[in-house]
Amino acid sequence: MEYFSTVAKIEFEGPQSQNPLAYKYYNPDEIVCGKRMEDYLRFSVAYWHTLIADGTDPFGAATMQRPWNGYSGLDLSKARVEAAFELIEKLGLKYFAFHDRDIAPEGTTLAETNRNLEIIVSKIREYMASTSVKLLWNTANMFSHPRFVHGAATSPNADVFAYAAGQVKKSLEIAKELGSENYVFWGGREGYETLLNTDMGFELENLARFYHMAIEYAKEIGYKGQFLIEPKPKEPTKHQYDYDAASAVAFLYKYGLIDHFKLNIEANHATLAGHTFEHELRVSRIYGVLGSVDANQGDSLLGWDTDEFPTDLYSTTLAMYEIIQNGGLHSGGLNFDSKTRRGSFEATDLFYAHIAGIDSFAKGFKVAAKLTEDGVLEEFIRNRYSSYGTGIGADIVGGTTDFKKLAEYAEKRAIANESGRQEMLKSILNQYLIELG
After folding, report:
1. Which residues are tagged catalytic?
2. So what's the pLDDT on residue 304?
3. Which residues does the chain have with pLDDT short of 50?
4. Peptide bond preceding 236 in cis form (omega within 30 of 0)
């Protein structure tokens, strides 16, 4: 069955095109930063928002009109697989991502649930074998079911910890079977509401124990994908242990996990943490743990995870600047953890939305590549810190001075700061955005 019969394969037509079902900036074969655009950006369709989301919100019922809505149970899951691969291929993309509970219904027992998964995974494997589509990453949903009300690996109930372990065990086996290039841990309930009933230290230790067990099981079954942690603050838990990139890095270092994990950074999660997207990418990059990206954007006027498709060119440009400085995302990619708005309920809107996000990152990539090639920002930053290249600055960096010598130096030296030129730099960024339009 063809689920999107009114849409042909999306092609690159260039910025002058008026066709809403065509790429204006994403040319998969164009060479940027020494690679084909397709190979560098590695776009991925997120199963949960694209195939599962129905437009329900706290104030209203479902609105999404989907060709597969008439099915139920495993038949619905099978129809979604067929629709997913049709959508991905018509978009001309190579990757997708899913939670275990996205692809198959949960049964009354873990064993029944796993049997459901095996049926659908077999179907996914067949489609992957007949196409060039790959699995960017998969993960386990350990936040939706009531059993996870107090967390999964951080639950005070050891039975819940055991169930979560069984769930991840199966997810890792699926990752190996489908050749998943990464495996993500998102601690949706790994946090606490109040310290009045929480042993925070013990919960963090249990979370670390869980991750070490996952590492060992991956080794046991021969799964070699990259493990990723996805930081997110607040929602749904008030104090989440993976609040932001810095919190996640500190956790990884403390519990001896830093050599096994990188981070999957989401733009909207950065917003909720009070950071910019590029800040979270920069923190991850300088610690050597920038692994993958969930590409979306939030709404600065709203305090929750709106998961909008990315269209802010400033954000995509500065994000791609960080990714270029990182040498790319390696086994990671740009996964559209994004959903169409509740009012954009027709199936064709899935194409319009993905095209908008893909073109926004493609345009940002080209601008960031030109900024990097010209060295505009790097030169300014290098000059700004030039005082550390000679004299007392070189002594500080080289470790050949101390407080006593620095104090003596300071007594004889008048301080003369230079402007940071923030507005000038933003003007230069505007110029690059406009000229490359």
Report:
1. 99, 102
2. 87
3. none
4. yes
